[in-house]
Write a structure and sequence with these properties.
The relative contact order is 0.19. The chain has one domain (13-165): Trna Endonuclease, Chain: A, domain 1 (3-Layer(aba) Sandwich). α1 runs antiparallel to α3 (54-71). The longest helix is centred in the middle third of the chain and has 18 residues, at 54-71. It contains four helices and five strands; from the N terminus they run αααβββαββ. The chain has 169 residues and is of the alpha+beta class. A five-stranded mixed sheet has the order 1-2-3-4-5.
Length: 169
């Protein structure tokens, strides 16, 4: 069974034998190694000296998460998916044959806990509604899927700290 991915394009990672889950592709290696967002100290201020606002911090965190996931060998299918009935998913990605609905949580401090702690039951339901709509649009639920969270911690003048939590809820 093809799991409905034929509607979304070709499979991502393949090993030398053509099977899924093989050696990380060359594109993923380049994405991880040469990503400016992942490998350089960040400026959290604008050119005029003003600090970035919370929406700009969130957008930066999502761009970093996309580079991180690509570097992990995932194929990012969509960003900021919004379902008609209020569901939302930050990133929809493919990890081999598994469809991954990813929530990105970005913080500039860990003083109030991990970014993962901000994903409460209400946020989980919002992501689940978005995922259900995505699966409805695919026309099947007969594919392996899961919910992941990417935690991004940004500090002025430091390389971002990124952590992937698989099967977060």
């Amino acid at each position: 069974m093809e799991y409905g991915f034929e509607k979304l394009g070709r499979y991502g990672r393949q090993g030398g034998d053509g099977k899924q889950g093989g050696v990380m592709g060359l594109g993923a290696i380049f994405a991880r190694r040469f990503s400016r967002l992942l490998n350089r100290p960040l400026r959290l201020t604008r050119r005029d000296g003003e600090k970035l606002g919370h929406l700009e911090i969130g957008e930066l965190g999502e761009r970093i998460a996309v580079d991180f996931l690509t570097g992990e060998g995932r194929k990012v299918l969509y960003r900021n998916f919004r379902a008609p009935k209020g569901g939302e998913v930050d990133i929809v990605a493919r990890d081999g044959k598994v469809l991954s609905f990813v929530e990105v949580k970005t913080r500039t401090s860990e003083a109030f806990g991990r970014p993962l702690d901000a994903v409460d039951r209400e946020k989980e339901r919002l992501i689940e509604r978005g995922a259900n709509e995505w699966l409805r649009l695919l026309g099947t639920r007969e594919i392996p899927w899961r919910f992941d969270v990417v935690e991004v911690v940004l500090r002025e003048g430091e390389v971002p700290k990124v952590n992937l939590v698989r099967d977060a809820f």
